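Researcher: Going back to the complex we discussed earlier. I've cleaned up the inputs and rechecked each line, so this should be the final set. Can you rerun the prediction on the complete assembly and write out the structure?
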Amino acid sequence: DGGITQSPKYLFRKEGQNVTLSCEQNLNHDAMYWYRQDPGQGLRLIYYSQIVNDFQKGDIAEGYSVSREKKESFPLTVTSAQKNPTAFYLCASSINWEAYGYTFGSGTRLTVV
Amino acid sequence: QQQVKQSPQSLIVQKGGISIINCAYENTAFDYFPWYQQFPGKGPALLIAIRPDVSEKKEGRFTISFNKSAKQFSLHIMDSQPGDSATYFCAAMEGETSGSRLTFGEGTQLTVNP
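Model: Rerun complete. Updated structure for the full complex:
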């Protein structure tokens, strides 16, 4: 079955540590996205990538970094510079950057301890 | 800036009732308006979507009503069922000029009581 796999499902991080969230898709989609979800705030765009080796900042990119070395993979690193990293992180993809349909993964819940 | 405003934040309806969730947008360049359904611990899934050239779209028990002049659109769930209990997000997207970036509303937590 084609889809988006996010791992791990739950992640705990100590303050001051960097952590990397994995996102892999086998849909052959060109565009990939990272969203952050907080209660009462909807989904906010962190980074997005339209093609391999290219990515752009979204609305809340500070404290995050990404890479897009392969079409199927778009890992997100939450750095120690992110002041409030505890949240539910969602990865999505679409056929191309002009396509309207998004497919979302099941998310990673990150908690800072 | 919040370009898509969604209300109510939470909604409780009885089984068989009609659930109505409203959204308003500011950017007149938006040309695609999807609704997503999210169950706890899962990612959102596309439920139904509309383009501004039509005023209504119906798929089963789910209907989007769109009012371009008022810059508002709403989701109606007819004959609501307990299995519809989830969080619903409206969203909007501008066309090719800025890439396919979805802007989401704040979400509505729907509870359908049996």
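Model: Worth noting: The interface with chain A takes residues 4, 6, 9, 32, 34, 36, 41-46, 49, 89, 93, 95-96, 99-102, 104-107 of chain B (CB under 8 Å).
Researcher: Good, that matches what I expected from the previous run.
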